[in-house]
Specification:
By secondary structure, the protein is an alpha+beta fold. Helices cover about 35% and strands about 15% of the residues.
Length: about 180
Amino acid sequence: MNLSFPYNETRMAALHDAVAEFLRMTAANNEGLSVDQQSRVAIVQFSCDVHGGTAPTEILKQLTGITIENVDEWIDDVYGIVDGGPHTHTEIGEGMILAKNIIEGIDNNRKSHKAVIAFTDGKPECDATSGGGYSFIEANKAIGNAAVIKQQYNGTVYSVCIQAHAAVNAGQQLPPCEVKG
C-alpha cells in the first residue's frame, strides 16, 4: 500500500485513511472468493484515560470477511474512532491482548495467515504507575502478547507508527521480555 498524506494531516486522519485503504484493498481481494477463502478482519480500538475515566479498549468490529457490500460500514466505524483528547493514552498492551484473544478463537483447521496490524503513535503510556508517560509495563504487555501470537499461532504482528518523525529501525531486535497472558 502506497499512501502519501498531506503535510498538515493529523495523525488520526492519517490512521483513518490508511486503515480505510487497507479495508478497500482487502474487500477488492476478497471479491469472487467463497466465504471460507476470504481474508477476515477484526478491529480493536485501544486507548485509556489515565485520570480515572473509562478505558475504551474494545473490539470495535468482530472477525469477519470484508466485502464490497460491507466495506463502507467498516470504513464508517473506523472514521468514528476519535482522539480522546489530552488525557487519553495508548493502551497498546491491552489492545494486543484482545488481538491475541481473537486469533485464539480462529479454528485450527482454517488454513490462513494470521496477522495483527497495530497502528500506533509509538507511545505505550497507559498504566497507573507511568502517570501518562512512557510505560515499560504497557510496552512489555504488547511485546509479550505479540510473541505469543507469533510462537503459538504462527502469526505475524506488524506495527505501523503514525508518529511525526518516527525513528525507523527495520529489522532491529526487540529486547527480551517475559511472556505473560
